[in-house]
Amino acid sequence: MSIINVMEAVVREKLNTMLATEDCCKCEHCLDDMMAIALNKLPSKYVSSHNGELFSKLDAAVRQNAVDINIAVTAAIDAVSKRPSH
Question: Using CB atoms within 10 A of its CB, is residue 43 exposed (0-12), middle (13-18) or buried (19+)?
Fold first, then answer.
């Protein structure tokens, strides 16, 4: 059985969308830093990968947290853009 944090996929998708219009470093190290910063500000959403029902329930929870996700990703982009560690 495989356990995954679905919030990682949600944050990665949001980060890629937001970075399309940002003028900042998008190297792998900076992207990893942005992911880590954003994910540390958000609650984890773990599911077992074989259970599709949980994904539909999780979708509703993620939509409720959409504002929090946007804030966390925006803050992460800003923090890494100001002080890239690469």
Answer: exposed
At residue 46, φ and ψ (nearest 5 deg) are -90, 140
Alpha-carbon span 10 to 2, nearest angstrom: 18
Give me the residues paired with residue 3 across strands. Answer: 48
Which residue intervals of 1-86 are DSSP H helices? 6-19, 28-40, 52-64, 66-82
Q: How far is CA 85 from CA 3, 7, 30, 61, in A?
A: 30, 24, 7, 33
What's the rounded Cα separation, in Å, for the pair 73 and 55?
A: 22
Using the structure block, give the residue that is written with the tokens 């949600």. Answer: 10
**pTM, rounded to two decimals:** 0.84
Nearest to 81 by CA among 4, 73, 13: 73
The answer, yes or no, to whether residue 6 has pLDDT greater than 60, is yes
